[in-house]
Amino acid sequence: MLSFLNIVVFLAITGYATYLFVQIVYSRIVFIKLGKKANLKKDAAIRVNEFLTQVFGQTKLLKDPKSGVMHIIMFYGFIILQFGAIELIIKGFVKGFEYPIGEAHKFFSLSQEITTFLVLLAVGYAYYRRYIEKVQRLKRGFKSGLVIIFLTTLMLSIFFTLAFEHLWLEGSGGSYAPISSLIASLFAGMRPEIAGALFYLFWWVHLLTLLAFMVYVPQSKHAHVLFAPVNIMLRDTKPVGKLTSFDFEDEEQETYGVGKIEDFRQNQLIDLYACVECGRCTSMCPASGTGKTLSPMDLIVKMRDHLTEKGSAITSRTAWMPSFAFAQAKGSFPMHDEVAVTTEQAPALIGDVITEEELWACTTCRNCEDQCPVANEHVEKIIDMRRYLVLTEGSMPQEASRYFQNIERQSNPWGINRKERLKWREGREDIQVPTVSEIEEFEYLFFVGSMGSFDLRSQKIAQAFVKIMNTAGISFAVLGNEERNSGDTARRMGNEFLFQQLCQENIANFQAYGVKKIVTICPHTYNTFKHEYPEFGLEAAVYHHTELIWKWMQEGRIKPTKEVEESIAYHDSCYIGRYNDIYDIPRQILTQIPGVQVLEMARNKQDAMCCGAGGGMMWMEETQGKRVNIERTEQALRLNPTTIGSNCPYCLTMMSDGTKAREMEHLVKTLDIAEIVEKAI
């Protein structure tokens, strides 16, 4: 009778919990499908490789080794424990049930107990990090504590269920069930019928906790268990940070950019439910770290809640399922009278959900994306919303408007007469800088860029690199007054139309002069030429000047023989580093120079902090918190260097301003790699 009652109650509760689980998960899928189709490339090999390395290899999580190991134990622990969970459930209907695997069951039992114990330790460590150590990036609210309670209850109920089963059967698991047997020994002498009753008590505790957790997961941050693997599998396989283009010839296009949550592509919306809320992105964000309102994690969470709210409003009017299916991300089940707001009443994505201050604080450094364990892409979402503000609403900071006007009129950020692009080569009799119209053949087009052409400090970088090319006997030319701004910054500030115009003008010039190889001193130009211009017709190899300097050093064209006594705190540019994975080459160059000592900042290579100039911030004022460049400069100064080294004109400017702000410019120089190499030759 008890067994029959167990079966009836089990089927009723399990069926209802499963119904709720499916309903909630399906609702999230429907919300995601409100977005635009993604049209992803069919790069199966790339996707499978990333899936295996990130999902099963947990590579991103291991960036923080402590929490990484903890998560690996939980991840694989839950996979292993599913086999034991099935056996444990059957035990509630068949007394003393064991898988019919003979002597191997002893080892199966041992593996289950060890795994359960390890998961319990991992949960304990999670509690310690969150509530005792109080790691800053981790939230400490009710929902976080609830998950720890769920997991602890699940693990302990396994041990107690097995322990009382031993007493009920008047036996012992022995050395193959060490923990449950130890617990059973504490209740030695208990009557079998009492042990049986306690077995069922803990069996039901385990089952109900498991089902409650199953229903809770898809409506909490733990939805990442379901959506993160899908997110990794369906992410864009385009080059890192490459932006999606608009077709301005499409007459049906009425708005540009993203002004509503459903304007995002479907694979972008998967990000929202894949978010772990681990705070890794925010902890590394230069804007968040210096007191700006932008928090990459909060941005994703607010957009997720907005999508859930708006999706509930839209789908509830179709009456495709009862309203309680749309459990909000806060974790509650709304009743029929708790109807979500209608689409017309829904808050605006930009303004109500995400503020303009947040959008304009982003430096596009991608530190958030590099840290994210579930492959979320924050930067393109921010730029998509900037595009809406700039191209559709015509709303932007005054500095951005002035920047666009100067680029449109003179093709440089300052509005200096475009005919002065060649003035940087004047006054240097020791270098030869031919233009494409002054020379018939050349191997490399040196794209000087606006910084190298007009900024007095950056001109020295261009001159140093030319000196290196002259010394190495390299055939090159510059476009001179025919050169246009690369358009990279305009694009990341949201002005896609201006970017495409500049892109097409530059490509036309490249094609007119038969350019096959391009080198630039600017990582931003390098990145956009290499990864974004090909979509518009560029067919040329693109190099950053450090790549060629190292190549020429290896070939023996450049021999840095002069001693340069400098202790150099090296700063990694975001657009060379995280965008293009170039970390070793600049360091290899410096180590080949006699007298140079390379100093590594606490945040270096993949974890290097942005200088604060990217995403258009070079041309805008920081009105909130501490200036990013000051924070980064202070990190370098802690090493007591004689020089701060860089490979980017933007970075060099920001670090130079930083040393001046700290009144250290007379003690600490700021130099580009090219300038340091020039000293050595």
From TrEMBL:
GO molecular function, one term: 4 iron, 4 sulfur cluster binding
UniProt keyword terms in alphabetical order: 4Fe-4S, Iron, Iron-sulfur, Membrane, Metal-binding, Oxidoreductase, Transmembrane, Transmembrane helix
UniProt GO cellular component terms: plasma membrane
Residue spans crossing the bilayer: 6-31, 69-90, 110-128, 148-168, 174-190, 197-217
InterPro entries named in the record: 4Fe4S_Fe-S-bd, 4Fe4S_Fe_S_CS, Cys_rich_dom, HdrC_iron-sulfur_subunit, Helical_ferredxn, NarG-like_sf
Alphabetized Pfam families for the sequence: CCG, Fer4_8
Annotated ranges, domain 4Fe-4S ferredoxin-type: 266-295, 351-382
PANTHER family: IRON-SULFUR-BINDING OXIDOREDUCTASE FADF-RELATED, IRON-SULFUR-BINDING OXIDOREDUCTASE FADF-RELATED-RELATED
Name of the molecule in the record: 4Fe-4S dicluster domain-containing protein
